[in-house]
Write a structure and sequence with these properties.
By secondary structure, this protein is an alpha+beta fold. Helices cover about 20% and strands about 20% of the residues. The longest helix has 14 residues. The chain starts with a strand and ends in a 7-residue tail after the last helix.
């Protein structure tokens, strides 16, 4: 779900990648830019992709000295409106810290609550355990990585109590381009006009559409189901049936005696790369 990118100081991201991300993830857009010289974070959110990209690049040119993040939403929970566009304040009314997310969080939405899972996590859950400063505690960091497994989360802050300006949970599950911009997945690539998730066919990785391909709802990877390990995504370990991480999956149809070993197997065997690299090495058939 979604596209999340992190731009390091003094870097301008590719407009083409942002546009591709918006085409693949069309349910709302937002960005945050840390401005150290003014001790503030500039945030804008909108449902208009062109307006978001143009405005983000304009503001990034003006304020290049801090970290920045841009997000394109593919809605899974919550109403599709600007209120559920990322990034969100970590704690209602806290303009010092903002959070954006790619994936699905194991958050239970109260009946009638129109907020997305990410918004609930940012406004209610993370502040309860200490907010951004808790991320500097190794034990809390490890607990949060377990809780958010299969997702990627970026937090930007100017809170003077925090040790860092930028935090990325599961940074290793994304990738960096040649300019140093970190991308949460590969939906910033587009080889033909389309909407929705990219497929192995749109990338030229398969010629026939008769194969039984599935898309992971958490990390947007796509697989031939016959190549998967007991129905779990080989990128992030999410169960294709219930959208929970392998060690949390309660699907009785899965005959997996030791899910911890399964998670370890997935982590050790998946190669984090981009679609162009796969094409050069023989495509997804090499899986």
């Amino acid at each position: 779900m979604c596209m999340l990118c992190v731009i390091p100081p003094n870097v301008i991201p590719s407009r083409e990648k942002l546009e591709n991300s918006a085409l693949n993830n069309p349910d709302g857009f937002g960005f945050a830019i840390v401005i150290p010289s003014e001790n503030r974070i500039h945030v804008e959110r909108t449902m208009n992709a062109d307006a978001s990209i143009t405005r983000f690049l304009e503001m990034r040119e003006k304020y290049p000295e801090g970290y920045a993040t841009w997000h394109a939403r593919y809605a899974t929970h919550g109403t599709v409106n600007v209120d559920n566009c990322h990034p969100f304040q970590v704690g209602i009314g806290n303009s010092q810290t903002y959070l954006a997310h790619n994936g699905i969080l194991p958050v239970l939405e109260p009946t009638g609550d129109t907020r997305s899972d990410t918004r609930i996590f940012a406004e209610d859950i993370l502040p309860t355990i200490g907010g951004v400063t808790s991320l500097d505690n190794e034990q809390v960091w490890n607990l949060l990585e377990d809780f958010t497994n299969g997702s990627k989360i970026v937090i930007l802050t100017i809170d003077p109590r925090a040790k860092h300006q930028c935090y990325i949970l599961h940074e290793n599950k994304g990738w960096k381009d040649s300019s140093g911009v970190w991308w949460s997945n590969h939906t910033c690539f587009l080889t033909q006009p389309m909407t929705g998730f990219a497929s192995p066919y749109s990338y030229g990785l398969k010629d026939s559409k008769t194969d039984n391909w599935v898309d992971c709802n958490t990390c947007e990877s796509f697989f031939d189901i016959s190549k998967m390990k007991d129905g779990y995504c080989m990128q992030c370990g999410t169960c294709i049936d219930c959208n929970t991480y392998v060690t949390d999956c309660l699907c009785f149809s899965k005959d997996v005696k030791d899910k911890t070993k399964m998670a370890q197997y997935i982590e050790e065997t998946w190669e984090h790369t981009n679609p162009n690299d796969w094409r050069d090495r023989g495509g997804w058939a090499s899986l």
